[in-house]
Amino acid sequence: xxxxxxxxxxxxxxxxxxxxxxxxxxxxxxxxxxxxxxxxxxxxxxxxxxxxxxxxxxxxxxxxxxxxxxxxxxxxxxxxxxxxxxxxxxxxxxxxxxxxxxxxxxxxxxxxxxxxxxxxxxxxxxxxxxxxxxxxxxxxxxxxxxxxxxxxxxxxxxxxxxxxxxxxxxxxxxxxxxxxxxxxxxxxxxxxxxxxxxxxxxxxxxxxxxxxxxxxxxxxxxxxxxxxxxxxxxxxxxxxxxxxxxxxxxxxxxxxxxxxxxxxxxxxxxxxxxxxx
Length: 277
What we know:
The protein has 277 residues and is mainly alpha-helical. Helices cover 80% and strands 0% of the residues. It is flat.
């Protein structure tokens, strides 16, 4: 169920729930978050079901449950389908139709649109596929409010524009894996230089987008200053990757690791800022 990936996804969902302008009971909120976690895990399971043969070819994924024989493909498929439906129904029961529909759409998008359709066909797979990973804070917001406004959309955009630089950095120092699996990630298709340029461009866009909630008046000075300094360092790392031709894998790995910390800190600061305000 990809628990390490899922933990960050669920955290952003919790942030969306906490900063919503209305409140929901602790019991309903907890079960709703558990339902989203189950849905995220279901999407991960379906992803590994479909990509089991590719996972076996890559060092990064060859120890996953299906390639190692701990779980069969049929077991993973059944598990993924059942947990998908259970998660959506549970969220509908303890929350509302909109949040349940969005969770269903997220699972569908990640499994069908990204995993099955986009990933094997285009180097822009991670850009478009980033929609699925960016929706959890919006789902968290809808669990409480039952509607969507600009504020959760800005959180969506932060994750959406964060995703390409995060995954392209990974693909830069794992290019051999993607070559072996014949997955058309950007470094494989367009080369290292183009990938580095795209990483830098998306980092700059992310920097601008991350500041926008403060300018719209949703968050205060603490968030503005924190996002400015965190984003500035992110852009700096991506610039170093762009200009340094001798330590590409070193900087790519730094960007990948820092990007995870960056997203966690940005959403943590959102909670702190919200509490103080």
